[in-house]
Write a structure and sequence with these properties.
The chain is mainly alpha-helical and 117 residues long. It has helices spanning 11-40, 47-50, 72-77, 93-98, 100-116; strands at residues 52-57, 62-67. The protein is built from 5 helices and 2 strands; from the N terminus they run ααββααα. The longest helix has 30 residues, at 11-40. The two termini are 30 Å apart.
Length: 117
């Protein structure tokens, strides 16, 4: 006599777990970007780098990294400003490119967790 085998598929639960894990992965990637960009942000007294934050909106599936100082955009965009060694304009844009593979790996690792167990 063959053993009975029963498989139940709860697609809604699987999709919800994958969506949650995907948001977790995006948050990890954004936190990494924040850390790297903060180390590149122009530093006078540290206000700009301390103002960096990660914002998550699960409803729209978006994660953002931002800096909340009135001068943040000018410091980021104005390539003529002088900065201390190791600090620079494009402090957020540049690591979006150079840290791309790390951020993708962080996001992918988190997204795959529900599938492992």
């Amino acid at each position: 006599m063959a053993d009975d085998f029963r498989l139940e598929w709860d697609g809604a639960r699987v999709l919800a777990a994958l969506s949650d894990a995907g948001m977790d992965g995006l948050e990890l990637a954004a936190e990494h970007l924040l850390q790297v960009s903060s180390s590149l942000a122009p530093h006078e007294e540290g206000d700009l780098e301390r103002s960096g934050e990660v914002t998550i909106d699960p409803g729209s599936g978006t994660v953002a990294v931002s800096y909340d100082r009135p001068y943040a955009v000018r410091q980021h965009e104005d390539m003529t400003l002088r900065h201390d060694d190791g600090r620079q304009a494009k402090f957020l844009e540049q690591p979006m490119s150079t840290e791309r593979d790390v951020m993708l790996a962080l996001a992918m690792r988190a997204t795959g967790k529900p599938l492992k167990g």
